[in-house]
From TrEMBL:
Lineage: Bacteria, Pseudomonadati, Pseudomonadota, Alphaproteobacteria, Hyphomicrobiales
Protein name: Uncharacterized protein
Gene source species: Microvirga arsenatis
Length: 238
């Protein structure tokens, strides 16, 4: 669980933050380096905000949190400190801004799924776990009518997805060469889960305070696919 609020409240809280300015540039000197997994940091900051009165983190909150984690708490902090200094600082801010927008879009999708599946339809459970994301490659797992379903959220055109996944799999197989047992490969239960995708493309999104989120039309389309697979009549956003 990263946030616990209705879709409308999520947008209201996002609007209260300093306006976010997306930056789609890619500085190769930064992006070509492996940086520790960020998903748990974003989730933990969302959980902190939940305890502080149902708040969402700003980009600057997240940037400072990442900087502290990598440059002060990480055992290789001396190595990662250079990414938060010139000339790499601007590229690192851009990379973290991409993480922030991705995390916020997924948190919004999670809030929508919970409202529709758990609260309104009373038909299932929605599970969102950073470990499942990096270990099982499942952004979210939805259980509806005794059917576990896997949701994959991505932030590009659907036609680009196969090439992106192929590159990620190649990189992971290199990194996991000595730890194949801890990977998701050959997991029978995971392989049996029907995968469902939702894309946030430039032609199909909603912008809230600068943050590009999945459109409600795309979210409803995902819901319809999930309900059809689970053989139920579920609730959709009006």
């Amino acid at each position: 669980m990263s946030v616990d609020m209705y879709e409308e409240r999520f947008r209201e809280e996002l609007e209260k933050l300093p306006r976010f300015v997306p930056d789609d540039s890619r500085v190769s000197l930064v992006w070509n380096h492996k940086i520790p997994a960020w998903r748990a940091l974003f989730t933990s900051l969302c959980l902190y905000g939940h305890s502080m009165g149902y708040r969402l983190p700003s980009f600057e909150d997240f940037f400072r949190y990442c900087e502290s984690a990598y440059t002060k708490r990480h055992p290789n902090s001396n190595y990662y400190s250079r990414f938060f200094e010139d000339p790499l600082l601007a590229g690192m801010r851009q990379r973290i801004s991409a993480w922030y927008e991705s995390g916020m879009a997924e948190a919004y999708l999670y809030a929508c799924l919970v409202e529709a599946v758990e609260d309104k339809s009373k038909a299932g459970l929605v599970l969102y776990d950073p470990r499942a994301d990096w270990k099982l490659k499942a952004d979210m797992i939805v259980i509806i009518n005794h059917r576990p379903l896997r949701v994959s959220a991505f932030f590009s055109e659907r036609s680009e997805r196969p090439n992106i996944e192929a590159r990620r799999d190649k990189v992971e197989r290199i990194r996991k060469i000595n730890t194949t047992e801890s990977s998701h490969w050959n997991n029978r239960e995971l392989s049996a889960m029907q995968p469902f995708e939702i894309a946030r493309a430039d032609t199909d999104l909603q912008v809230v305070n600068g943050v590009r989120l999945f459109s409600l039309a795309a979210i409803n389309s995902l819901f319809e696919s999930l309900y059809k697979e689970a053989r139920i009549d579920g609730w959709l956003f009006p």
